[in-house]
Design a protein that fits this description.
Length: 424
């Protein structure tokens, strides 16, 4: 029998005092999970290795990309699954790819963990250390991560398998931490992923038992226009020669997650807002299917036609029905509409940003603010809401995970027991 709420709250508080805080699982963003590859009779390509009995870091490996880019591209891009398969996409023939250290934190601390690169690329290293030192969490026990193959997120069968893995990790973490409910902390795409998981994968009873709260950092809950632009010419960064992002376009055009993160037809991205224009066509959020067809990217069109990604997109814009902490930066100019002086999308070269709005440099404010929306049902679940001034820097979206004011607020939130669900 479940104890009364007052008793459960008291027990949770006592366990906090005794050094047993509620556990936390991190769900990283697009590109935030280190991915490892293993080769078995992969087709030959120039100087590419065709077999490898050991797992090696394929994303993100500076040495792989810089020294053997075409080889890396052939191994990392997804391909169409055969007719009749429940998956729309699969890894390249002879290539198996998995997330690094599922359940541990080695796959999120550095973006290039295990690569042997000469330059470390920290992602959540600062956050992990802060949560260990100031929130009393223990890595790989009460502080864990649900790394996942972010390329495939959006392919229905692949995503359901990822949801099942996350559900199992939550249940395991609950059991090894004195049956304390688990906080789910997400970043970027991880916010949409976690919201869809809570809406589609598990029951209300399951959430009441296993989930303390949902901590959503920089979540693009309605997608973001920069995704459509990135599918044409790659993401644009200050001080980075555009030839580098452009090299990634063929890979991006095979990732269902790029469809998931494209803007959703909504009051934020209405049908009369032309997010992307060419000499011959205008594409609003409601025209995403036509945009993918005109892009001449069959895999992307197949993902859209399959319909699973639309169910995920709808689920990721609605309240998951658990207490949550929502945080983001909102003072950076962020692309809203784009123009490309071409007749054919597939021939797009460089374009230009026509209109900007506020946001975090990657996600527009309207999409970030979905967690406040009464329309999506979020407002009734809101426990904490924090907005940070970044000073206009383009790194606001990714930099928030190591931002001291956010980390201090996060620790304060985790050390409270009156704002999120407690249950023994």
């Amino acid at each position: 029998m479940r104890p009364p709420v007052a008793l459960a709250l008291l027990l949770a508080q006592l366990l906090h005092v005794a050094g047993r805080p509620n556990p936390l699982i991190v769900v990283p963003g697009l590109g935030g999970s280190v991915l490892e590859a293993k080769l078995t009779d992969a087709p030959e390509f120039r100087d590419c290795q065709t077999t490898s009995s050991d797992w090696y870091t394929i994303f993100f490996s500076i040495s792989q990309v810089v020294e053997r880019f075409k080889c890396w591209e052939e191994r990392f891009a997804l391909t169409m699954a055969p007719d009749g398969d429940s998956h729309v996409v699969q890894s390249a023939p002879g290539v198996e790819i998995r997330p690094r250290d599922f359940g541990g934190v080695d796959g999120i601390e550095y973006s290039n963990s295990g690569s042997g690169d000469w330059i470390p690329m920290p992602y959540m290293k600062v956050m992990v250390e802060k949560l260990e030192q100031d929130a009393g969490l223990v890595r790989n026990t009460s502080l864990r991560a649900a790394t996942y193959d972010f390329r495939k997120a959006g392919d229905w069968a692949s995503t359901v398998a990822q949801f099942e893995a996350l559900q199992g990790l939550v249940e395991e973490t609950y059991e090894i931490n004195e049956q304390l409910p688990v906080h789910l902390l997400s970043h970027s795409l991880g916010g949409a992923f976690t919201t869809a998981f809570l809406n589609l994968q598990v029951s209300e009873e399951w959430k009441e038992k296993y989930v303390a709260s949902f901590i959503n950092l920089s979540g693009p809950l309605l997608g973001t226009p920069i995704t459509m632009a990135a599918l044409l010419t790659g993401p644009v960064y200050d001080y980075v020669p555009q030839i580098l992002p452009e090299l990634l376009v063929p890979v991006l055009r095979t990732a269902p997650s790029m469809v998931w993160m494209s803007p959703q037809d909504s009051d934020v991205f209405p049908s009369d807002l032309p997010i992307l224009t060419t000499n011959t066509a205008n594409y609003s959020a409601k025209d995403l299917g036509a945009f993918l067809d005109d892009l001449d990217a069959p895999l992307m069109s197949a993902v859209w036609t399959d319909g699973g990604v639309e169910k995920l997109r709808a689920a990721s814009s609605m309240s998951p029905g658990v207490p949550h902490f929502c945080a983001y930066a909102n003072d950076t100019e962020t692309g809203l509409t784009y123009q490309y002086a071409v007749d054919n999308l597939a021939d797009a070269g460089s374009g230009k940003m026509l209109e900007v709005t506020m946001g975090d440099g990657t996600v527009t404010l309207g999409s970030l603010e979905r967690c406040l929306s009464e329309e999506g049902g979020w407002a009734g679940d809101l426990v904490e809401h924090k907005v940070y001034a970044w000073g206009g820097g383009m790194d606001a979206h990714t930099g928030i995970v190591k931002y001291d004011p956010l980390l201090d607020d996060l620790v304060a939130y985790l050390n409270r027991t009156d704002v999120w669900r407690t249950q023994a």
